[in-house]
Write a structure and sequence with these properties.
Length: 215
């Protein structure tokens, strides 16, 4: 975790709900296969809070073997690119032109100030949604409020129902909120494709004196 997050995270870690979540996770990691690995659960917060430009909100981590590594939508380089991420890459290609990458590691986005944050930060192997309603949602709500309050002119990309529940936590007069369907193959054709969120994001960043993201 980057030092810029420490005081905010320490505040949350001391709360009763998070202590209960920690007890649950300790038991889960001790008895089951949980993703991502413990040391990568908070990988999103390696991005300096002061350098965040864009926030992409995911659901819960990928639950397949060795997929999740702590960044929403991202997978390790050695892992096959998941369908949702393939669709993200397709939309980037159609929107602004870069070729579709040969791997799904999005660390280069994080390095440029894109916070890749899931709504829930852990999951049991092969059981999607298994760690919902355990406390993670309260934690990520708190993180969205911090981003809203402490930063200016962020772009929030809210894809799908889960992400859009966070909209009420964001001041739309202070930040740009872009909403669309989830990039999953089940919903991408319902408004994700053709949304042009990547060119709109960069245009907003440039308008506010920030460097655009190299998607």
């Amino acid at each position: 975790m980057h030092e810029s997050w420490k005081k905010y995270l320490d505040t949350e870690f001391s709360k009763t709900y998070f202590q209960d979540l920690s007890k649950f996770l300790k038991q889960e990691y001790a008895t089951k296969t949980i993703y991502p690995p413990k040391h990568q659960v908070f990988s999103a917060f390696a991005t300096d809070l002061n350098n965040v430009k864009v926030v992409i909100l995911g659901q819960d981590p990928y639950h397949g073997t060795n997929q999740a590594h702590g960044l929403a939508f991202s997978v390790s380089k050695s892992v096959k690119i998941p369908p949702s991420l393939i669709n993200i890459f397709k939309e980037i290609h159609e929107d602004i032109g870069p070729p579709i990458p040969d791997n799904g590691n999005l660390q280069k986005w994080a390095d440029q100030g894109v916070l890749l944050l899931n709504n829930v930060l852990t999951v049991e192997a092969h059981k999607a949604g298994s760690h919902r309603d355990k406390g993670w949602e309260e934690f990520t709500n708190a993180m969205i409020k911090i981003l809203n309050d402490e930063c200016d002119n962020l772009v929030f990309l809210l894809w799908g129902r889960d992400a859009r529940t966070k909209k009420s936590l964001i001041d739309g007069s202070k930040h740009l909120i872009l909403e669309a369907a989830h990039p999953s193959p089940l919903s991408a054709h319902n408004g994700f494709f053709g949304s042009k969120h990547f060119s709109k994001t960069n245009a907003y960043l440039i308008m506010n004196g920030k460097s655009p993201i190299e998607w």
